[in-house]
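[09:14] KT: can someone run the structure on this one? pasting the chain below
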Amino acid sequence: MVDFNNAGFDEAVQAWLAGFLNSAGAAAGTVHLHTVGGLRLAAGVNIPPPVQQAVQWVPSGKGMAGLALERGEPVQTCNLQEDRSGAVKPGARAVNAQAAVAMPVRDRVGAIVAVVGAAWMDEREIQGAELESLQGAAASLVDVARG
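[09:31] RB: done, structure tokens below
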């Protein structure tokens, strides 16, 4: 069962995220919308309230979502609990999951409009056809986020 934890979230983006995570077989996730200088949390599924509070605003280059924004490419870890790369912030370990990816979502002219994060219960690398499929599915957020 999905726990929406949706106080204050954008309802359309929240519904999109729940469907995206369900299709991907992911246990938790977020949508951060791009604003000047960083990202604003717009939706979250199975994200503990203290983590939600900590990631309400994510500056470019900080954490997985901020790095995905800064680099313009997916950032991932095969294990949130044990990652020592510096990409995973300590608070993210409160999410009961292992593998995770943060993917920038671009509009039709190539500008990043959001970063979608997803996490799975198992430890693994998300790459190749699986990553391409996730990115393709994440692209549908553009129509929802733009209303």
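[09:33] KT: thanks! Residues 11-145 form a domain with the Beta-Lactamase fold (CATH 3.30.450.40).
[09:34] RB: yep, looked fine to me
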